[in-house]
Amino acid sequence: MKCPYCSHQEDKVVDSRPTDDGATVRRRRECARCQKRFTTYEKVEILPLVVIKKDNSREYFNREKLLRGIVRACEKRPVPADKMHSLIDEIETQLSNELEREVTSRSIGELLMSKLKRLDQVAYVRFASVYREFSDVETFLDEIRKIRTEADSGN
């Protein structure tokens, strides 16, 4: 940290505490050369997650958009709203923990489908039918057969 008074590069932290909102850390520093004190504020830099869509356009990750898809899939199903929000939190956390700042909409869709499958199989099939663009009843039945086979094998 460069001293604002003498531009010296070395200092020591005299006091450190979180601000009232808890999102920032306030540090009192003392310059090693001129002994003057100054305050700095430190906060975590949150880099936005960018979604690469099918047509290669890009947009920022939108929780609300994901929630709309989940709500639609879970309509008239016994899935509480807090579970839907938890699902989004899990997905966002998993994506944020990866090193990439760009993610394809396909990988988000696949991630959501795997979580929906464990949460509610009907919601999963509804979401999959739109997401994978099922073209006929046979495709729908194939997906249901896969779920039944997985359930019978204990997966």
What is the tally of beta strands?
Answer: 6
Helix content: 40-55%
Shape by Cα distribution:
elongated
Q: Please state roughly what percent of the residues sit in beta strands, choosing from under 5%, 5-15%, 15-25%, 25-35%, 35-45% or over 45%.
A: 15-25%
Distance between the termini: 54 Å
Series of secondary-structure elements, N-terminal to C-terminal: EEEEEHHEHHH
Number of helices: 5
Low-confidence stretches: none
Mean pLDDT: 88
> Could you describe the largest sheet, including whether it forms a barrel?
3 strands, antiparallel
Describe this structure in words.
- By secondary structure, the chain is of the alpha+beta class.
- The chain has two domains: 11-43; 50-153.
- It is 46% helix and 21% strand.
- The protein has five helices and six strands; from the N terminus they run βββββααβααα.
- The protein has helices spanning 63-73, 81-97, 105-119, 121-131, 137-153, and strands at residues 11-18, 24-31, 37-43, 50-52, 58-60, 102-104.
- A three-stranded antiparallel β-sheet has the order 1-2-3, with no helix packed on it. A three-stranded mixed β-sheet has the order 5-4-6.
- β4 (50-52) and β5 (58-60) form a beta hairpin.
- The relative contact order is 0.10.
